[in-house]
Amino acid sequence: MKRILAIVMALFMSFGLTGCFTVIEEGKTAVVISATTGEIKGSELPGGDWYHTFFRTLKEFQVRDISMNIDNKNYTTKEDVALGDFDMTLNYQINPSAVADIYKTRSKAYNATNEEGDTLLMYNRVATLANSTAYQVLRSYDNLKAADRRAAIEKAILDGTNALLKADGLEGAVSVSAVNVRNIQPNAQIVESSAAVVRSANELRVKANEVEIAKKESERMAALSANSTQSIAYMNAQANLNFSQAALQGKVQTMIVPHGMSILGVK
Questions:
Q1: Could you tell me the residue range of the domain that residue 266 belongs to?
Q2: What is the rounded CA–CA span in Å between residue 46 and residue 94?
Q3: What is the CATH number of the domain that holds 89?
Q4: pTM for this one?
Q5: Long-range contact pairs involving 186-191 (C-beta distance under 8 Å, separation at least 24)
Q6: What CA–CA distance (Å, rounded) separates 161 from 163?
Q7: What total number of domains does the chain contain?
Q8: Domain-ending residue, one of 186, 219, 253
Q9: Domain endpoint, select from 18, 44, 60
Q10: 45-99 confidence digits (pLDDT tens)
Protein backbone atom coordinates (compact mmCIF):
# COMPACT_ATOMS: atom_id res chain seq x y z
CA MET A 1 0.00 0.00 0.00
CA LYS A 2 2.78 2.37 0.92
CA ARG A 3 4.50 1.51 -2.30
CA ILE A 4 1.37 2.42 -4.30
CA LEU A 5 1.07 5.78 -2.52
CA ALA A 6 4.71 6.45 -3.18
CA ILE A 7 4.20 5.74 -6.86
CA VAL A 8 1.15 8.05 -6.98
CA MET A 9 3.06 10.83 -5.25
CA ALA A 10 5.98 10.34 -7.58
CA LEU A 11 3.67 10.58 -10.58
CA PHE A 12 2.01 13.68 -9.13
CA MET A 13 5.37 15.34 -8.59
CA SER A 14 6.48 14.33 -12.05
CA PHE A 15 3.41 15.87 -13.62
CA GLY A 16 3.91 19.03 -11.58
CA LEU A 17 7.58 19.31 -12.49
CA THR A 18 6.88 18.71 -16.17
CA GLY A 19 4.19 21.43 -16.30
CA CYS A 20 1.15 19.16 -16.33
CA PHE A 21 -0.61 21.28 -13.71
CA THR A 22 -1.47 24.94 -13.81
CA VAL A 23 -3.28 27.40 -11.59
CA ILE A 24 -6.05 29.64 -12.89
CA GLU A 25 -5.74 33.13 -11.45
CA GLU A 26 -8.49 34.85 -9.51
CA GLY A 27 -10.60 36.96 -11.83
CA LYS A 28 -10.16 34.52 -14.68
CA THR A 29 -12.08 31.48 -15.93
CA ALA A 30 -10.79 28.66 -18.10
CA VAL A 31 -12.35 26.27 -20.53
CA VAL A 32 -10.99 22.87 -21.54
CA ILE A 33 -9.89 22.51 -25.15
CA SER A 34 -9.57 18.95 -26.40
CA ALA A 35 -6.04 18.14 -27.50
CA THR A 36 -7.40 15.99 -30.32
CA THR A 37 -10.47 17.86 -31.63
CA GLY A 38 -9.79 21.41 -30.51
CA GLU A 39 -13.37 21.64 -29.26
CA ILE A 40 -14.46 22.92 -25.85
CA LYS A 41 -15.21 20.11 -23.45
CA GLY A 42 -17.22 20.30 -20.26
CA SER A 43 -18.03 23.40 -18.23
CA GLU A 44 -15.96 26.37 -17.15
CA LEU A 45 -13.17 26.01 -14.60
CA PRO A 46 -13.25 28.86 -12.03
CA GLY A 47 -10.13 30.76 -11.05
CA GLY A 48 -8.16 30.30 -7.86
CA ASP A 49 -7.45 26.57 -8.20
CA TRP A 50 -5.04 24.06 -9.76
CA TYR A 51 -5.94 21.98 -12.82
CA HIS A 52 -4.12 19.29 -14.77
CA THR A 53 -3.22 19.86 -18.41
CA PHE A 54 -2.18 16.43 -19.60
CA PHE A 55 -4.05 15.35 -22.74
CA ARG A 56 -5.88 18.66 -22.80
CA THR A 57 -5.35 22.43 -23.11
CA LEU A 58 -6.80 25.06 -20.80
CA LYS A 59 -7.72 28.39 -22.33
CA GLU A 60 -8.02 31.23 -19.83
CA PHE A 61 -10.26 34.26 -20.07
CA GLN A 62 -10.32 37.37 -17.92
CA VAL A 63 -13.85 37.84 -16.61
CA ARG A 64 -13.59 40.67 -14.06
CA ASP A 65 -12.68 44.34 -14.43
CA ILE A 66 -11.83 44.24 -18.12
CA SER A 67 -10.84 47.82 -18.89
CA MET A 68 -10.75 49.71 -22.16
CA ASN A 69 -9.98 53.28 -23.19
CA ILE A 70 -12.02 55.02 -25.87
CA ASP A 71 -10.02 58.13 -26.73
CA ASN A 72 -9.78 61.05 -29.14
CA LYS A 73 -13.45 61.08 -30.07
CA ASN A 74 -15.19 64.12 -31.55
CA TYR A 75 -18.83 63.37 -30.87
CA THR A 76 -21.39 65.81 -32.23
CA THR A 77 -23.39 67.84 -29.72
CA LYS A 78 -26.83 69.44 -29.79
CA GLU A 79 -25.68 72.29 -32.06
CA ASP A 80 -24.39 69.83 -34.70
CA VAL A 81 -20.85 70.87 -33.79
CA ALA A 82 -18.11 68.35 -32.95
CA LEU A 83 -16.44 68.35 -29.55
CA GLY A 84 -12.78 69.26 -29.44
CA ASP A 85 -11.95 65.97 -27.69
CA PHE A 86 -13.59 63.22 -25.65
CA ASP A 87 -11.82 60.43 -23.69
CA MET A 88 -13.35 57.79 -21.45
CA THR A 89 -12.46 54.55 -19.70
CA LEU A 90 -14.98 51.72 -19.49
CA ASN A 91 -14.92 48.56 -17.35
CA TYR A 92 -16.98 45.49 -18.14
CA GLN A 93 -17.22 41.94 -16.89
CA ILE A 94 -18.15 38.48 -18.14
CA ASN A 95 -20.32 36.05 -16.21
CA PRO A 96 -17.94 33.07 -15.65
CA SER A 97 -20.71 30.59 -16.39
CA ALA A 98 -21.25 32.20 -19.81
CA VAL A 99 -17.64 32.01 -21.00
CA ALA A 100 -17.86 28.72 -22.86
CA ASP A 101 -21.10 29.62 -24.63
CA ILE A 102 -19.81 33.05 -25.69
CA TYR A 103 -16.55 31.60 -26.97
CA LYS A 104 -18.33 28.89 -28.96
CA THR A 105 -21.29 30.85 -30.37
CA ARG A 106 -20.20 34.46 -30.78
CA SER A 107 -18.08 35.82 -33.59
CA LYS A 108 -14.35 35.74 -32.87
CA ALA A 109 -14.20 39.27 -34.35
CA TYR A 110 -15.97 40.45 -31.20
CA ASN A 111 -12.90 39.43 -29.15
CA ALA A 112 -9.50 41.07 -28.72
CA THR A 113 -6.08 39.96 -27.52
CA ASN A 114 -4.13 41.81 -24.84
CA GLU A 115 -0.37 42.27 -24.58
CA GLU A 116 -0.03 39.03 -22.61
CA GLY A 117 -1.75 37.09 -25.36
CA ASP A 118 -4.97 36.52 -23.41
CA THR A 119 -8.27 36.56 -25.28
CA LEU A 120 -10.61 39.31 -24.09
CA LEU A 121 -14.10 38.06 -24.80
CA MET A 122 -16.49 40.59 -26.39
CA TYR A 123 -13.95 43.41 -26.05
CA ASN A 124 -14.44 44.78 -29.56
CA ARG A 125 -18.21 44.36 -29.38
CA VAL A 126 -18.47 46.25 -26.08
CA ALA A 127 -16.24 49.01 -27.47
CA THR A 128 -18.50 49.35 -30.54
CA LEU A 129 -21.68 49.51 -28.46
CA ALA A 130 -20.18 51.99 -25.98
CA ASN A 131 -18.97 54.22 -28.81
CA SER A 132 -22.41 54.15 -30.43
CA THR A 133 -24.09 54.95 -27.11
CA ALA A 134 -21.73 57.86 -26.39
CA TYR A 135 -22.48 59.30 -29.83
CA GLN A 136 -26.21 59.29 -29.08
CA VAL A 137 -25.82 60.61 -25.53
CA LEU A 138 -23.68 63.62 -26.51
CA ARG A 139 -26.32 64.71 -29.03
CA SER A 140 -28.43 65.81 -26.06
CA TYR A 141 -25.88 68.24 -24.62
CA ASP A 142 -24.65 71.72 -25.50
CA ASN A 143 -21.05 71.84 -26.66
CA LEU A 144 -19.94 74.30 -23.98
CA LYS A 145 -21.94 72.65 -21.16
CA ALA A 146 -21.06 68.97 -21.73
CA ALA A 147 -18.03 69.07 -19.43
CA ASP A 148 -20.26 70.25 -16.57
CA ARG A 149 -22.60 67.28 -17.07
CA ARG A 150 -19.93 64.59 -16.76
CA ALA A 151 -21.69 62.45 -14.12
CA ALA A 152 -24.96 62.38 -16.08
CA ILE A 153 -23.10 61.51 -19.30
CA GLU A 154 -21.27 58.63 -17.58
CA LYS A 155 -24.52 57.15 -16.27
CA ALA A 156 -26.25 57.51 -19.63
CA ILE A 157 -23.41 55.75 -21.45
CA LEU A 158 -23.32 52.93 -18.88
CA ASP A 159 -27.10 52.39 -18.98
CA GLY A 160 -27.26 52.74 -22.76
CA THR A 161 -24.44 50.27 -23.40
CA ASN A 162 -26.00 47.69 -21.08
CA ALA A 163 -29.31 48.14 -22.87
CA LEU A 164 -27.63 47.39 -26.20
CA LEU A 165 -25.93 44.32 -24.70
CA LYS A 166 -29.36 43.13 -23.57
CA ALA A 167 -30.72 43.67 -27.07
CA ASP A 168 -27.75 41.62 -28.30
CA GLY A 169 -28.95 38.69 -26.20
CA LEU A 170 -26.15 39.10 -23.67
CA GLU A 171 -28.10 40.17 -20.59
CA GLY A 172 -26.63 38.42 -17.58
CA ALA A 173 -23.59 37.32 -19.61
CA VAL A 174 -21.79 40.60 -20.32
CA SER A 175 -22.28 43.87 -18.44
CA VAL A 176 -20.62 47.26 -18.17
CA SER A 177 -19.78 48.01 -14.54
CA ALA A 178 -18.27 51.51 -14.74
CA VAL A 179 -17.76 54.44 -17.11
CA ASN A 180 -15.30 57.22 -16.36
CA VAL A 181 -15.24 60.24 -18.65
CA ARG A 182 -11.66 61.48 -18.27
CA ASN A 183 -11.74 64.45 -20.60
CA ILE A 184 -14.27 66.62 -22.43
CA GLN A 185 -13.03 69.56 -24.49
CA PRO A 186 -15.48 71.88 -26.29
CA ASN A 187 -15.00 72.87 -29.89
CA ALA A 188 -12.26 75.54 -30.17
CA GLN A 189 -14.30 77.70 -32.56
CA ILE A 190 -17.29 77.60 -30.21
CA VAL A 191 -15.05 78.67 -27.33
CA GLU A 192 -13.63 81.57 -29.38
CA SER A 193 -17.11 82.66 -30.53
CA SER A 194 -18.36 82.59 -26.95
CA ALA A 195 -15.37 84.61 -25.80
CA ALA A 196 -16.00 87.14 -28.60
CA VAL A 197 -19.62 87.53 -27.48
CA VAL A 198 -18.47 88.15 -23.90
CA ARG A 199 -15.89 90.69 -25.06
CA SER A 200 -18.48 92.47 -27.21
CA ALA A 201 -20.94 92.62 -24.30
CA ASN A 202 -18.25 94.03 -22.03
CA GLU A 203 -17.27 96.64 -24.59
CA LEU A 204 -20.92 97.60 -25.04
CA ARG A 205 -21.30 98.09 -21.29
CA VAL A 206 -18.18 100.26 -21.22
CA LYS A 207 -19.46 102.42 -24.07
CA ALA A 208 -22.90 102.73 -22.48
CA ASN A 209 -21.22 103.84 -19.28
CA GLU A 210 -19.15 106.41 -21.20
CA VAL A 211 -22.29 107.78 -22.85
CA GLU A 212 -23.98 108.07 -19.46
CA ILE A 213 -20.94 109.88 -18.04
CA ALA A 214 -20.90 112.30 -21.01
CA LYS A 215 -24.60 112.93 -20.55
CA LYS A 216 -24.17 113.73 -16.87
CA GLU A 217 -21.23 116.01 -17.64
CA SER A 218 -23.28 117.88 -20.24
CA GLU A 219 -26.09 118.34 -17.74
CA ARG A 220 -23.59 119.57 -15.17
CA MET A 221 -22.07 122.13 -17.57
CA ALA A 222 -25.53 123.36 -18.58
CA ALA A 223 -26.45 123.84 -14.94
CA LEU A 224 -23.21 125.70 -14.26
CA SER A 225 -23.78 127.91 -17.30
CA ALA A 226 -27.30 128.81 -16.19
CA ASN A 227 -26.13 129.56 -12.68
CA SER A 228 -23.26 131.64 -14.04
CA THR A 229 -25.60 133.85 -16.12
CA GLN A 230 -27.85 134.39 -13.13
CA SER A 231 -24.87 135.22 -10.93
CA ILE A 232 -23.51 137.84 -13.37
CA ALA A 233 -26.93 139.50 -13.66
CA TYR A 234 -27.20 139.57 -9.88
CA MET A 235 -23.72 141.05 -9.52
CA ASN A 236 -24.52 143.82 -12.06
CA ALA A 237 -27.75 144.70 -10.30
CA GLN A 238 -26.00 144.80 -6.91
CA ALA A 239 -23.29 147.10 -8.33
CA ASN A 240 -25.88 149.48 -9.80
CA LEU A 241 -27.65 149.64 -6.45
CA ASN A 242 -24.42 150.37 -4.61
CA PHE A 243 -23.47 153.16 -7.04
CA SER A 244 -26.92 154.72 -6.78
CA GLN A 245 -26.93 154.70 -2.99
CA ALA A 246 -23.45 156.21 -2.85
CA ALA A 247 -24.42 159.03 -5.21
CA LEU A 248 -27.52 159.88 -3.19
CA GLN A 249 -25.43 160.13 -0.07
CA GLY A 250 -22.89 162.42 -1.75
CA LYS A 251 -20.14 159.98 -1.28
CA VAL A 252 -19.29 159.80 -4.95
CA GLN A 253 -17.57 162.77 -6.56
CA THR A 254 -16.66 161.17 -9.86
CA MET A 255 -17.69 157.85 -11.24
CA ILE A 256 -17.80 156.05 -14.47
CA VAL A 257 -21.33 155.23 -15.41
CA PRO A 258 -21.60 152.02 -17.39
CA HIS A 259 -23.55 152.13 -20.60
CA GLY A 260 -27.23 151.65 -19.95
CA MET A 261 -26.99 152.45 -16.23
CA SER A 262 -29.48 154.92 -14.79
CA ILE A 263 -28.69 157.02 -11.67
CA LEU A 264 -31.25 159.46 -10.28
CA GLY A 265 -33.16 159.33 -13.50
CA VAL A 266 -30.17 160.63 -15.51
CA LYS A 267 -28.86 158.54 -18.32
A1: 188-267
A2: 12
A3: 3.30.479.30
A4: 0.62
A5: 186/83, 186/84, 186/143, 186/144, 186/146, 186/147, 187/81, 187/82, 187/83, 187/84, 187/143, 188/84, 189/81, 190/79, 190/81, 190/143, 190/144, 191/84, 191/144
A6: 5
A7: 3
A8: 186
A9: 60
A10: 554 444 455 555 667 778 888 999 999 999 999 989 899 999 999 999 999 889 8
